[in-house]
Structures are given as C-alpha cells and as structure tokens.
Amino acid sequence: VKVVKSSTADGFRFILADDAWLLIRFSGTEPVLRIYTETDSQTRADRLLESGKELAGV
C-alpha cells in the first residue's frame, strides 16, 4: 500500500492510501521506542506493526 502522506510532528507518522496509519516514536518518559498503528483489521495491524519494526530496525 502506498504512503500518501507523512509527518514528523510527534514521531514518524505514515498515512497510507487505504487510510491506515503507522506511527514510530520514542517515549517522552522512558528509553522506549513505541510503534502504533490503526487500520480496519487485526491481521492488517499485525502486518503494519511488523513493517514498522523493520523500518525502526528492531
């Protein structure tokens, strides 16, 4: 799925053509990298989280 928009306002957010999104950001209070996603199914969310891990190198 194509990335149609990106933002770095609160981490690295990628908005996809199917209206799903992926956010990779560091915690503001802990030495932790967080990866969030929102989409229409759990299967798709799992795939996006794996893609986010790949992008972040974890």
TrEMBL record:
Residues 13-50 form the Alpha-D-phosphohexomutase C-terminal domain. SUPFAM superfamilies: Phosphoglucomutase, C-terminal domain. InterPro entries: A-D-PHexomutase_C, A-D-PHexomutase_C_sf. Pfam families: PGM_PMM_IV. GO terms for molecular function: intramolecular phosphotransferase activity. This is Alpha-D-phosphohexomutase C-terminal domain-containing protein. The lineage of its organism: unclassified sequences, metagenomes, ecological metagenomes.
